[in-house]
Amino acid sequence: MKQAEFDGKGSCIRWTETPGEEPARVYVHGLGAMSAVYHAHIAARPELVGRRSLFVDLPGHGISDRPEHFGYTLQEHADALAAALDAAGLTGVELVAHSMGGAVAIVLAHRRPDLVSRLVLTEANLDAFPPPTAGSSGIAAHEEDAFVDGAHARVLANVGPLWAATMRLADPRALHRSAVGLRRGSEPVMRSILEQLPIERVYLQGELSGELAGRQTLEAAGVRVVTVAGAGHNVMFDNPDAFAAAVAGRC
Fold first, then answer.
1. How far apart are CA 227 and CA 243, in angstroms?
2. Residues 6 or more apart from 88 whose CB is under 8 A from it?
3. Do residues 107 and 76 touch, judged by C-beta distance below 8 A?
4. Residue 217 exposed, middle or buried by CB count within 10 Å (0-12, 13-18, 19+)
5. At the N or C end, where does the chain have fewer CB atoms within 10 A?
6. Would you say 135 and 163 are in contact if contact means Cβ atoms under 8 Å apart?
7. Which residues, other chains included, contact 25 with Cβ-Cβ below 8 Å and sequence gap of 6+?
8. Phi first, then psi: what are they for 137, rounded to 5°?
């Protein structure tokens, strides 16, 4: 396990990694998740081994610290991720990022273009104020203290067992602030940033999640959008073969 301070007050973002060639692949999880749980089985596949791979847990999640004073906005998450990459001595990494982690990755590529050479995004949040069915919307619908004092337990009881298994390890206040920050989005908004980034960009959309809004505009901007057969939001679990092929650049 490795760590880097991210807030100037001693709080650390942490990650595990496997050695290998660079450019490194950096795996970033979604809201209430953990990177290794969602991505280690992908990085271990034959077509992907041999590359340095980092599994980073964002602040408030997994093995990283969860300071109460931290805001957990997309920008703050991106800056914390940048601190991890700086401490690891990395530039020009490939970011493989899921859901909220995809939004964080887009913001990082915008704020620190030296750190990112390629994005592989899995159902990343691209717009502010997603529909009420989004997981972040259900969390952000509560006031922060009300969520911490009771709604968090109800949310855990109502989400699926896979998400609950990692969400219960996230700090409730950090989880709520992250959801609020995700709904608020970035400035410029994530979709606009993604369309303008001068790097390779791949966007994976699960077939079962429906058509990606604004797909044609993204593709016109050079984003490769791949619909993954038989997959929902968690493409890396639902169709790991297709996911690994996309990370390897083979689809």
1. 11
2. 2, 4, 15, 17, 24, 54
3. no
4. exposed
5. N
6. yes
7. 43, 48, 51, 52, 53, 54, 93, 94, 96, 247
8. -65, -40
Contact 24, 51 (CB under 8 A): yes
pTM exceeds 0.90: yes
* N residues, the chain: 251
Which tokens go with 113?
Answer: 């273009």
Q: What does the pLDDT look like over 72-126, one tens digit per residue?
A: 999 999 999 999 999 999 999 999 999 999 999 999 999 999 999 999 999 999 9
Alpha-carbon torsion, ordered 6, 170, 145, 10, to 10 deg:
-20
Q: Please, what is the end-to-end C-alpha distance for the chain in angstroms?
A: 32
pLDDT per residue over 35-55, tens digit each?
999 999 999 999 999 999 999
